[in-house]
């Protein structure tokens, strides 16, 4: 014969459980933000590093959650294209934040990170990029200038940083998501 179990103060237990679940979600998001910071710092220290010409690609990096822009709110772009890049960055951040808010309403914690520069994917995937100083054109029509690549910079810097730091990012999320007493 099965025993009958009664739960006293069920509403209190349920309220405490719901409160801890919400707190855990917030801590998980904090861990995700810490993981994004690990990735960003690694891309600047460990080869292959983020390629730098004027610094606009590096400046276009962002980290966005449903609640806020955690990194890359007001980058400092340079050169003739600075105004267009700033406008594109603002539009990209707004679109991405809208997507993260929509997912958040569905009960998911989301963090998006990346680059708003329209040429970021091209530079990331360009495996034939020479790493020797040379004359090159740009930005602007017909403007030739001396270009000296950043030492240690190369293609796939973003992807490689994720691969190198997968365990560190998971650890950051795990440590923050633990149930607190």
Concise synopsis of the structure shown:
This protein is mostly helical. It has helices spanning 10-45, 56-59, 82-105, 120-125, 157-177, and strands at residues 61-65, 69-71, 111-115, 134-137, 144-147. α1 (10-45) packs antiparallel against α5.
How are the elements arranged and paired?
Blueprint: H1 10-45, H2 56-59, E1 61-65, E2 69-71, H3 82-105, E3 111-115, H4 120-125, E4 134-137, E5 144-147, H5 157-177
Antiparallel strand pairs: 1-2, 1-3, 4-5
Helix pairs in contact: 1-5
Query: What gross morphology would you assign?
Result: elongated
Radius of gyration: 22 Å
In the sheet with the most strands, the strands line up as 2-1-3
**Biggest β-sheet description:** 3 strands, antiparallel
Structural class: mainly alpha
Distance between the termini: 36 Å
Count of structural domains: 1
Question: How many β-strand stretches?
Answer: 5
- Mean of pLDDT: 86
The proportion of residues in beta strands is 5-15%
What order do the helices and strands follow? HHEEHEHEEH
Low-confidence stretches: none
Number of continuous helical runs: 5
Helix content: 40-55%
């Amino acid at each position: 014969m099965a025993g009958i179990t009664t739960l006293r103060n069920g509403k209190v237990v349920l309220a405490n459980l719901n409160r801890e679940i919400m707190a855990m979600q917030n801590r998980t998001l904090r861990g995700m933000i810490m993981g994004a910071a690990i990735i960003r710092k690694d891309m600047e220290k460990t080869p292959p590093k983020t390629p730098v010409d004027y610094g606009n690609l590096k400046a276009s990096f962002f980290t966005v959650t449903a609640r806020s822009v955690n990194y890359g709110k007001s980058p400092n772009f340079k050169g003739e294209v600075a105004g267009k890049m700033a406008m594109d960055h603002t539009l990209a951040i707004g679109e991405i934040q809208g997507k993260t808010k929509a997912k958040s309403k569905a009960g998911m914690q989301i963090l998006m990170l990346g680059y708003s520069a329209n040429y970021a994917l091209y530079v990331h995937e360009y495996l034939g990029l020479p790493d020797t100083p040379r004359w090159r054109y740009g930005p602007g029509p017909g403007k030739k200038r001396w270009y000296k690549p950043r030492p240690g910079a190369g293609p796939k810097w973003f992807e490689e940083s994720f691969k190198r730091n997968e365990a560190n990012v998971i650890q950051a999320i795990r440590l923050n998501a633990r149930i607190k007493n």
